[in-house]
């Protein structure tokens, strides 16, 4: 019998064996990426491979500088000590989130650690070309300093708009005023790095599903509240749902049911016109703020006007969430960005309002949660997009050449 990780059976058998080896390398790299450091024994159990095969595969990943082996836990006293395998922290992705008020750029490790983060405040709307230029400039600067020894797998961008899955074309980002912008190609040309582009909320739900409030949950509705409005992402039966063109999850464009005319602020407006970060900033007297600053300002305010605006937005948000629960029957609803703050400052009130409007059977097992990854969720999601090819095929990635 030939080793499934070696050559055998002629040219065809060698190709098959190499394909099996590539998949097994990918399995091990993904396990330590998603679950964190694992012993060789744990990897053997998780993959079903034998110990010598796991040792061989880990050895190759170490040689490629994708993982590192550490001494076994000294507290383990039963049985043969097993070395611990962890991703090499020098492998990173550049994660980018362009918004109407700022461009956020971060260096995210394969270990999910955010090594560097810059928020560049903007007094004008970014163009796709300016975005590509600023990203390239920041990477060049970091490479002369903190990222001197880093191996950059690629760039991932989380964009508040409709992104065509097949080629990363931003079909429409209305708040940025982008239309048919070839963002992937622009950034790739400017940086010389593999580039992936996705909708911000779709990448946010991926991050929360893998590492946050949706970890281990197979059916998730996620709503993301940002400077550009409200987007959404879906996980159904454990798989991301993108739709035919990659545009699924645009909850912010739905027409909200508003029971009281006094609650309406935008005639014939969509959900993101009514449940709005800009309205919250205006209520607390801020022209601009990042997520933690806005959350702190809302929490600290004792203004009746601020309280009234939060209550109004919660009422409308509750109806939107009830509609999503009725249609999709999720196990978990996750709220990110300013929506997390709206929820946290009146969580019981929101949950009761959702339950009152949803079908009882659909609400039986629904849990409403806020995003655990907080302001990191879009950056970690963008990094996942950049790491996708490396995790699929660790043997044949530009970062290794």
UniProtKB/TrEMBL annotation:
Protein name: ROK family protein
Family: Belongs to the ROK (NagC/XylR) family.
Superkingdom of the organism of origin: Bacteria
The organism of origin for this protein: Microbacterium rhizomatis
Residues forming coiled coils: none
Any Pfam family the entry gives: ROK
PANTHER family: BIFUNCTIONAL UDP-N-ACETYLGLUCOSAMINE 2-EPIMERASE_N-ACETYLMANNOSAMINE KINASE (PTHR18964:SF149), ROK (REPRESSOR, ORF, KINASE) FAMILY (PTHR18964)
